[in-house]
Amino acid sequence: QVQLVESRGGLVQAGGSLRLSCTASRSIFSFIVMAWHRQAPGKQRELFASISHDGTTNYADSVKGRFSISRDNAKNTVYLQMNSLKAEDTADYYCFGAPRSWGQGTQVTVSS
């Protein structure tokens, strides 16, 4: 079973930046798509960033222009660069490898 391990999140001030990483226990080439989801308190988990095999990226409108997803195949790692963070970005962040592999989640709190 593949393991996905996210880096630790943390507390960031509004307007600040944070980078998360997600490292797989095997080659990320095995995943058709890798993505980041997040779940805010009292809300459903939502997909907001994805990157496909060929490097094509997609973003939810809520993060477009502020967040960037990338992958380093040699390191079996996917990154999420988050800039201009807002209080509404506060959530638990989860790495996902299609079709069914999830990381354990990491908490990101943005203080206003």
What would you note in describing this structure?
The chain is mainly β. It has no helices and 11 strands.
**Share of helical residues:** under 10%
Number of helices: 0
Uncertain segments are: none
Radius of gyration: 13 Å
Strand portion? over 45%
What is the string of SSEs from the N terminus onward?
EEEEEEEEEEE
> Which structural class is indicated by helix and strand composition?
mainly beta
The average pLDDT value, as a whole number, equals 96
- Distance from N terminus to C terminus (CA atoms, Å) equals 39 Å
Question: Which SSEs are present, and which pair or pack?
Answer:
Elements: E1 4-6, E2 10-13, E3 18-24, E4 33-39, E5 46-52, E6 57-59, E7 67-72, E8 77-82, E9 91-97, E10 101-102, E11 106-111
Parallel strand pairs: 2-11
Antiparallel strand pairs: 1-3, 3-8, 4-5, 4-9, 5-6, 7-8, 9-10, 9-11
List keywords for this structure.
112 residues, mainly beta, 4-stranded antiparallel sheet
